[in-house]
Queue: 4 jobs
Job 1
Amino acid sequence: MNKTKTVEKLQAQWISPENFQRYGQVIFPSRDGKTFDNEDAQLNLQNGTPRFYIMHLQKRGRKFHKITRHLQCTQCLGSLEGKDWLMAVCPPYNDLVEPVLAEIAAFRIPGNCFIKLNAGTWHAGPYFEHDFVDFYNLELADTNVVDHFTHDFLQSHQLEFEMI
C-alpha cells in the first residue's frame, strides 16, 4: 500500500526571549563591560570539549521532516552577515523518545541575535531562503557523533512540515 505524505504548515513567529523561553534563550547584543547575568547564554558544555565553528549552508528552503536533539549539552546558533533564518523546535521532554507533535513551534530569527538551545530541545534547522548563510555553532566536539538523536516524521507519521 502506498502511503501519502501530508505537509503541515507551521506559522513562524518572530522570536523573543519570552516566546522562546521553553526551548532556550535568545541573546541580543549588550553593552561592552556588562557583567554576566541571566540575559547571557547559560551554557552547559562540561560534558566534553567545546567546539565553536562556522557552518556554511546552501539554500535550505522551509521544509523539514527530521528533528534532532542533543541531551549532553546546550547548543548556540547564529547567522553571520545579519541574515534572518528559521528554526523549528519542540520542548525537551527527556523521558520521551520522540517529540510531542502538537508542541512543535517555528521561529523567525533576525540576524542580530543568536539562540541557545536548552539541552534536550528538539530542533530542525537552520532553514532559510538565501542562497547561502554562514552560521556559527557552539556545541561539543563530538555532539554529532555521540549525542545526536533524530526523529523522522516521514517514517513515523508520513508527515513533512513547512515553515511559513
Note: The chain has a mean pLDDT of 96.
Job 2
Amino acid sequence: MKKLLWIGLAGATGAIMRVLIGHAVPNVSGFPLSTLTINVIGTFLLCFIIAGAFRTLSAHKDVQDIVTTGFLGSFTTFSALSVETVLLVENNQFILAGLYVLCSIIGGIFAGSLGFQLGRKKVRI
C-alpha cells in the first residue's frame, strides 16, 4: 500500500511537470510541439535512468516503479499523441499529422538512444 501511495505522489508530480512544460512550450501553427517535447524528454529520461542510475546504483524495484510508472508514466503520454494526430487528420492536416508521428517516433528513438548511451557512461558522484 505504501508503494502505491509513492507511485501516486510521483504520478501527480509527473502530471504537474507535464502541465508546466506544456504551458512553457507553445504549439506552433497547429503542430503539437508541447506534447512532442514532453514525450521526447520523457523517453530520454527513462532510458538514461534505466541504463545509468538503476544499473549503477542497483535501485530497489519499488524505487524503479515509483520513478518509471509513477513519475514518467504520467509525465509522458501516448494517448495525447494519438488524440492530437486524430484531430489533425480530422482537420485535413494530413502532412502535419504525418510529420508529428514521424517526429515523435524518430525523436523518441534518438532521445532513447542518447539516453542509453549517456546513462551507460560511468559517472562518479
Note: The first helix runs from residue 2 to 24.
Job 3
Amino acid sequence: MSTKIVVIGAGSVSFGPAILRDLFAFAGDLRGSEIWLVDINAEALDVMARYADKLNAAFDQPFTLHATTDRREALPGAHFVIVSVAVDRLATWKLDWQIPLQHGVRHVLGENGGPGGLSHALRHIPLLLDIARDAEQLAPQAMLLNFTNPMSRLCMALDRYTRVRFVGLCHQIGEGYRIVNRALGLVPETGDRWADMHTIQQRIHITAAGLNHFTFILDLRDAQTGEDLYPLLRAQLAQMPADFELMSRRLMDVFGLFCASGDIHAGEYVGFAAETIALTGYDFHRYEQHGRKQWEQIQRIADSTEADLGALRKAVRPSGERAVPIIHAMLRDLNQYELSANIRNDGCISNLPGDAIVEVPAIVNARGVHGIQVGPLPKGLAAIMRREIEIQELVVEAGVKGDRNAALQALLLDPHIHSYAQATHLLDDLLKAHAEHLPQFA
C-alpha cells in the first residue's frame, strides 16, 4: 500500500517549495507515495503543482501527484497531513504589531506571545480545528504535522478539542545552535543557513526544553568528545558585545539557563524585553521582497517548457525542516532522535502541567513522536512558563468559543499589559480590526 501525504497550504511560497524539495530529497525511500497538494488559492496552487510536476520528471516520476482546492477531496485515507496555513498573513500580522503599539504596549514581535499572539491565535484556531476535524472524519489514523503559529496555542487547541495525532514543528532550535556557535567560535559560518546548521551540529549538541520560542539549554556538549561546554559558554558570553542576546544573558544570570530561542522570539514572553530589544518588529518589507523573488523563480520553473531536469535534480536538497524526515522515520520505524517537537507534556518536563504543550527532544518511530523526559526546569523559569500555559488555556477557550471575557483575562495576565483600560481598549480594537476573520465573536 502506498503512503498518502497531504500538504495543506502548498501554495505558500515559503512553505510549498521547501516541503516539495524535502519530499523529492527522500524520493528513493518514499517512491510510490501519493502526494496531494491543497490550497484555497487556485492560482498559487496551479503554479506549485506545475513546479512539482517538473521535479517529478527530474526524479523519474517517484510520486503520484494531485492538486485540489478542496481538502476534503484530498484527505480520505491520508497517512500524513502537513499543515502550514495563514489568514492573510502579512496584512493581519502588521495590524497585530501596530495596534498594541498604539495603546502603549512595548512588545517586540507580535506573533506568538503578547496581544499580537492572542490576535493571531484567535484567527487561526478555528481554521486549524476545521482542518483537524476533517482529518478526524476522513483520515482518522493520520499524523498531523503542524507548522502554523502560534504553535503552542494551536497545538493546545488540537489536544483539547480533537482526537487527531499531531506534532508541532518549528526550526527555531537552529537559532540556538547558531547563537551558541557565535559565542564559542567553534565552526566558521558560510552564510548557507542549513549547511551551517549541519556543520555546527557535528561539533555541538544541545538539549533544550520549554515552550515553543521559549526553550532553554539544559545541557550543552561537544558532540565529538562529550565535554560539558556550558562553563565555556558562560565565560564567552561575558566577553561578547553588550548587545549580543542581552535579554537571554540576563535570563541566564538570574535563572541559570541560556535561552535557545534567541532574544526576539523569546522576548514575546518577557515583560522587560523592550529594555534590550529595539521596537522595530518584523521586517515585513524584506519578507515581501524575498517572497517575490522566490515566487518568480518557482514560476519560471513551472512555466518552462524545456526545464533543465538535471539541474533541477541537482538543486534539490533537504530544507532543514523536519516534517518529511519525521514521516520517513515513522514509516521505517527508525527510533530517530529529533532536537525538538511540540507535543503534550505528559511528564517530559516534570514541573510543568502534564497536559501542557511543551517543546522537548523526541524519539520518532512507527508508533509516533515520543517526548524525552528531561526533568524539572529551574523554578523561576517554570513559573514564567506556567503563567504562559494558563494564558494559552484562556486564548484557546476564547478562540474556540468566541469568549471575549476569556480573551480579556488572557491579556490581563500578560506581562506586557499594565492597566485594565489598556487591555479592554486594545482588545476592542483588535477584535474590530479583524472582525471579518473572527466569526466566533460576531
Note: The mean pLDDT is 96.
Job 4
Amino acid sequence: MDQTKILEKAQGYAVQGWDVAKEWLLSPQAWTQFGLLVAAYLLALFLTRRLQPVLDRLLTPPDEKTNVIAKTRRFILTFLPLMLPLLAYGLTGIGETVTRSIFDAGAVIAFGKRVFMFLAARILVNEVIKDPLLKVLGKYFLLPVAALYAVGFLDEVMTRLDQTVVPLGNLSFSLLFLIRFVLVGGAIFWLGRWSNDQTAAAIKRQEEMRPAMRELTAKAAEIAIFGLAFLLVMNIMGISLTSLAVLGGAIGVGLGFGLQKIASNFISGVILLLEGQATVGDYVELDGGEAGTIVKMTARAAILETYDGKWIVVPNEDFITTRVVNYSDSGSANRYEAPFSVSYDTDINLVPDIVESAVAAMPDVLSEPFPPDCELRAFGDSGIEFAVEFWVNGIDDGRHKYTSDVLFCIWNALKAHNIEIPFPQRVVQVKGEIRTRVK
C-alpha cells in the first residue's frame, strides 16, 4: 500500500515537472530568462578571468610575513574559487529583477540562480574547506540542503523533517532539530577550536611570562572558550540549562566513583602549572625510573621525550605524590665533573691552573654560579687522580655531550704542556732464587 502511494506521488511529481518543462520550452518569457541566465554566466566568467589574477596578486603576502594582516590576506585568498558562481549568482539576481518587472515572471532565471548557489556550495566544500570536521558537515549536510534548494524541494523536505518526531524516553525532538543542532554545534565548536588555537599561540608568544604560567593561562582560556561555546549552542537551540541538572548530577557521581583518577590527574595538573615546579622544557627523573624532557603538559598527563626518541606518558598525579628530580627547573645551570689522572712524574701544582684555564675558555662552560674548579681526588695505583667541576646550561646527554667535550679539552691542554696521562701499570717483584731443573 505504501509503495503504491509513493509511486503515485512520484508520478504526480513527474507529470508536474513535465508540464513545467513544456511551459518553459514554449514560452518566449522562459527563453528570455534563459538568455539572461547565459549572459549572466558569460559576464561572470569574463569578470572572473580579469579580476582573479589581480586579486590573487594583491592578496598574496610575502612568504616571510606572519602577522595578523598577512594571515587575514591568506584566509581571504582561499575563497577566490567562489568568485565565478557568486558573481553569476549576483548578476542572475539582477536579471531576475528585470524579468519580473517586465514579464511578471522569473521561474527559469530563479532556478538558474539557485543552481549557481549549489555550485558555490560544492566548490566551498571540495576546494575551500580544509578542516576535516567542516568538510564532513559540508559533504553530508550543506550539499544535500543546497541540492534541495536548487530543485525547489527544500521547504517541503524541512516541513517533513520537522513533523518527524524521534522519541527518547521522556524527551522527544524532530529530525530537523537534530540536523540544526549538529550543524550549529559543529560550526560553533569549530570556531571555538580555531579561537583556542589562535589564543594559545598568542599566549605562548609572551616570553615575559613563565612557561608554567603560559601553560596555565592557555588551559584556562581553552576551558573558557569551549564553556562559552557550549552555553552558546544550548542558548541558540533553545535548550534550558536547568534540564541538564540530572545529567550534571550523573557526571558528578561518575567523577566520584569511576573517574576519580581522571579528576585527581586534572587537579594535579593545575597544581603543577600554578607552582611551576615542572614545566615544558624541563628534564625530569621520577622515582619509577622515567626520565626525559617534558615536551607537552595536558589536563591528564605530562609527555616526556627521552633522548632515544621515545615518548613516555606520565600521569600528573605522579609529579605530586612521588619524588621528582628536576635537572633544569626554570633554566637553572647544572654541575658536572670530568675525572682524569696524570703521571707521578708530573708537577701536580701546575695541573689545576692549566685545566681550569682550558675548560673556562670553552663556550658552553659557565662562569656563574662558579667557574671551573680542578680538584685533587686521590693518589691512585697508576697515576694521580684529578677531577674538574664545571657548570653548564642543559643536560649532559642527547645532543649535548659536555663531559666528553671537556675531556677532549683536558687531553689537548695536558698534551700541550707535555704532561703525561698514564695508562694502567703494575710492578711485579720476584723474590728468591729461581731454579730451573732440566731433565
Note: The chain has a mean pLDDT of 77.
